[in-house]
Amino acid sequence: MTTRIRQNYKHTLNACYIGYITQAIVNNFAPLLFLTFQRSFGISLAKISFLVTVNFGVQLLVDFLAAHFVDRIGYRICMVGAHLLAAAGLIGMAFLPRLMSDSYPGLMASIILYAIGGGLLEVLVSPIVEACPTEKKEAAMSLLHSFYCWGHMGVVILSTAFFFVFGIDKWQMLAVIWVAVPLANALYFMVVPIRTLAEEEEGLSIRTLSGRTVFWILMVLMICAGASEQAVSQWASAFAESALHVSKSIGDLAGPCAFAFFMGTSRVVSAKFSEKLSLEKIMLGSAGLCAVSYLMISLSPWPVLSLAGCALCGFAVGALWPSTFSLAMKKIPGGGTAMFALFALAGDIGCAGGPLLVGRISGMFGDDLRTGILAALVFPVLLILGVIASGKTREGTNKENAVSEIG
């Protein structure tokens, strides 16, 4: 059995899909509990928004450092370690806040642990899939990223069902249950075959990448893609419950769950039509829809229309992150691990900055999340300008990405 797994790259893809489900757990379980944290631990929205910033801030630090150490340590060791750290963070979240006199440092320590794991996953999963001997890379990349969305949906639906049956006060028990996913996938990654992109000396160096104008344009696109997605995703549950005055169960299903479903659907649709539509057209259309959804969420006088805006936002942002990765591979072929790490870094800057902006602006206006989300409109607007600018740059010389087999 183990021998068959070691020789079949379908198992590698499956492990990568579960890797993104793991990342969905560590990024989206805690936001379901933001108002619970606020009530149980006396934590303000401003301090809760800083937890989001720490999560993605640590991930972006790992993204930056990973460009220097991943190739030396090896993909397999890093992937197994990433899952173990994610599991440790979830276990810490269940116990540390209650064990410490001040719950906030306990939450912070737990988030830092799983954020390190999440950062490694973000850096490694995409290049591992890119290096697999499969065709239709753009479609494979969109399909891969859709599993983050299905993981997000699973977190919301299963958590909502758990809270309905056992009560929200048993959330620590659920955190321990979620640990099974990263632990099982850590074992899976010990045996699946893994190929890497170009070896460090063959791929483009950070110095070479930073000398290209298109690289910096793509970095801005990644920042805006992450910010556009997480500005609504991280606050959807709290927004539905506090601003729209619906129950937590309904709010979670109609807010973050609908967001995740339509984001996943968008990525599957993008994979299906990746050969018929240009990446630039997909991204421009997505950014435009994102802007419309922000206006619906923040300005609509009807809660139903605001919730519909959350769902539309999920569909709108779904294609942005994977399409930017695919555009980078098209514009800068042979970028190697360093390029993926730096783009993951940029994406996590956006993931940290988007929710932080929403939280801070909301706090300035009496914790009004509508105003905070309206301010985040700046991200899809910048994304549109960035896509237009990238279209005026020439693509790099096409060449085969070098790959190497590792244990």
TrEMBL record:
Its main location: membrane. This is MFS transporter. The keyword Transmembrane applies. It is a multi-pass membrane protein. SUPFAM superfamilies: MFS general substrate transporter. InterPro entries: MFS (IPR011701), MFS_trans_sf (IPR036259), MFS_Transporter (IPR051788). Keywords: Membrane, Transmembrane, Transmembrane helix, Transport. It comes from the Bacteria. Belongs to the major facilitator superfamily. It is found in: Cell membrane. It holds the Pfam family MFS_1. The chain crosses the membrane at residues 12-35, 41-62, 74-95, 107-126, 147-168, 174-192, 213-233, 253-270, 282-299, 305-325, 337-357, 369-389.
